[in-house]
Amino acid sequence: xxxxxxxxxxxxxxxxxxxxxxxxxxxxxxxxxxxxxxxxxxxxxxxxxxxxxxxxxxxxxxxxxxxxxxxxxxxxxxxxxxxxxxxxxxxxxxxxxxxxxxxxxxxxxxxxxxxxxxxxxxxxxxxxxxxxxxxxxxxxxxxxxxxxxxxxxxxxxxxxxxxxxxxxxxxxxxxxxxxxxxxxxxxxxxxxxxxxxxxxxxxxxxxxxxxxxxxxxxxxxxxxxxxxxxxxxxxxxxxxxxxxxxxxxxxxxxxxxxxxxxxxxxxxxxxxxxxxxxxxxxxxxxxxxxxxxxxxxxxxxxxxxxxxxxxxxxxxxxxxxxxxxxxxxxxxxxxxxxxxxxxxxxxxxxxxxxx
Length: 355
Fold this sequence. Notes:
Helix content: 10-25%
Distance between the termini: 54 Å
CATH topology of the largest domain: Spore Coat Polysaccharide Biosynthesis Protein SpsA, Chain A
Oligomer: single chain
Largest sheet: 7 strands, mixed
Strand order of the largest sheet: 5-4-1-6-11-8-12
Number of domains: 2
């Protein structure tokens, strides 16, 4: 089998972070989400992966490279315009050929991997298999209805009155029949070729489309709160690893990772938490569920349940910073200038809470 990762899209729900960076490269527990998707596919034994890229393609190419760090071969597939998931599949046919393949959305985190799922699909006579997850409010998702044998009978996009609580999570397996489906469907009212329409075409033509109901957690990291939740869940699985420097006046509690070149000085780090390479924590408190990426400085401050991206500085804050996503090359500091005032430079669609 081959793998296909969809890594286009503009990431509008994560602005302003995604004005200058691909949403798939925002880190969860100090590892970009896209890297975690590649990890998951590699762990399933797949060695040929196509990545569909859009406007942020050059950044993704630089970050991922040729795949050698994973021991796989990466092929990049440019999508000139975001014309839908089924369109991304359609333009990937030259790479995929007639092989069975797994398609994975590049901004999803899923617990437990997909190795067992891949093995099940390879050994079956299914024409497609779709990963589903029970959700509390299916009206926000594409929803699948099943027969007693687990075969999908109908897909409905964001139904007003859901007949099922099983949502599509962004992991799909197909055989060559998908090419007929994506060629036959027409654009939706959004002007896009919808993958749900392609799957429904398979169902309507009596092909075998089965469900795989995922029992672990799954997060679409497209929003800030979802990204923080994914970070929390991944950090829960950390094992303590103290590679960087921790001085004798510091206290490390619980599952904490201090990466190479990092320094913790006269500070408390309470896990689960991760401190990135060459980051300095000085006279500070880092609370649970916090990821601080590489080459950052935190001084005389408290941070909890947050993600701080690379080359950022947090200094001399009078109150704890929590439930926050801080972008690259950001400086947050208490100003000594008088008169006292908030002095901000914020990108579009920013959110700031003040006392």
